[in-house]
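User: I'm curious whether this sequence folds into something compact or stays loose and floppy. Could you predict its structure so I can see for myself?
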Amino acid sequence: MYQEKIITPPSGYRILALFVTLVLCGILAIAVQNFVIIEVILFVSGFLILPGFIINNPNESKVLTLFGEYVGTVKTDGFFWVNPLTVKKKVSLKARNLNGHQIKVNDKLGNPIEIAAVVVWQIKETAKATFAVEDYLQYVAIQSEAAVRHLANIFPYDNFEDEEATITLKDGAEKVSSLLESELSERLSRAGIEVVEARISHLAYAQEIASAMLQRQQATAVIAARKLIVEGAVGMVEMALDRLSEKNIVELDEERKAAMVSNLLVVLCGDRNVQPVVNTGTLYN
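Assistant: Here's the prediction. I'll summarize afterward.
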């Protein structure tokens, strides 16, 4: 595995001054019609000086190779001159976004889901990015999709079917993102790439089961609401009976208590407005 070697070539302005001097000498040689000097100047300036000039912009680098051998990487921005025979490859060091496509995969429980992720990454080691992989852009895209698939396979979408699950794709956003970032960092380190951030950008059940899962979620919500209503109603009935007994407003036997509890529960737990009924008799007639 190639290790990055950072080099700082000599300034290009000194060599530029030499180039300008040679051009002036060439003009003088043309004036005196000395063709030998002209040919020498053209060869030196055109083949040995001009190809060696490089301009390195901020957050860019130049990876240099000479006859198939890695020479080094120029990361300092500026105007430089290098060996004109070296091959110069520009590698950007800027942060990039990968907006992953929505992919269909099964979660831990086998439910088909749609999931996608956004990955922010940048190149840290240009030698690995250039020589360790064929195309680092394609490598990032493929490895990111593989990491998202693996993450979806080890966690359930929610804990409706697996109540013991401590981490779910739906509710464990921070933990899931942290695990995704760690796995991507491990996968992309081979290409000298650093993962700045990784987040789940899309998460939903697949279309073929989305309707059924929505009905299940609605039913669960209704049951939870009913449970809360019943608990509140029981507390209110208990409080009413205690207050009536405490104030000695009326003495109720067990049958009347049962009737009162039944009426209060109907009023408190019903999902529609109740219609009052005036009882002109007694419970026993």
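Summary: DSSP finds seven helices and nine strands in the chain. The first strand starts at residue 53 and ends at 56.
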